Amino acid sequence: xxxxxxxxxxxxxxxxxxxxxxxxxxxxxxxxxxxxxxxxxxxxxxxxxxxxxxxxxxxxxxxxxxxxxxxxxxxxxxxxxxxxxxxxxxxxxxxxxxxxxxxxxxxxxxxxxxxxxxxxxxxxxxxxxxxxxxxxxxxxxxxxxxxxxxxxxxxxxxxxxxxxxxxxxxxxxxxxxxxxxxxxxxxxxxxxxxxxxxxxxxxxxxxxxxxxxxxxxxxxxxxxxxxxxxxxxxxxxxxxxxxxxxxxxxxxxxxxxxxxxxxxxx
Length: 266
Prior knowledge:
The protein is an alpha+beta fold. It has seven helices and 13 strands.
């Protein structure tokens, strides 16, 4: 017997827009070679980087103390999580949740070559989020984010994450781009369409993705989804697993059962 792995702090963002069929969410299909959740559909996100806690990061919106209350953590961790959410969304979707330090206009376009150079520098850790924002006279806009869910990988798993889920609207003037080197597909889908593809086996996903898509499905548009974020503080969810004759299931603390779908080889 060995002690369970310590969960790594991580942030994930449900990036939302109003599309023709209604509320849509940006989804990435992780490449099959990835050591964690390879072949699974997920949201942009990833682990916290030590520099995400830089106090020099320009900030507008709810302060770290308010996020700490929402997620039940200390202020340093809360700062790291919000910064990681903004950084990972830029790294994996080419969308930057930043703007005027006084709360004015959100940066409208981040698709030029100069922005791409800085996105690559973030990926290689040659540049921190604080340095990127300072160089452009911008502030992280925590007011564009909403706390949405909190999941912790079960102790039985060797690779564990303590993941905070955020929701955010796609800023006006920006476009999500398929720029993640960790994904082989990027799509805007309604939650209902994504879950329908899961049901047919065409879009495997981890239980947190399945569950949060189900939470999004009733909302008609982005405004309703952001206004309908769950009450705070969020209670962490850590499922257990169950084998039955008709499949393998993740069982949530409230008794909800989510079928586990394994990606098929090409």
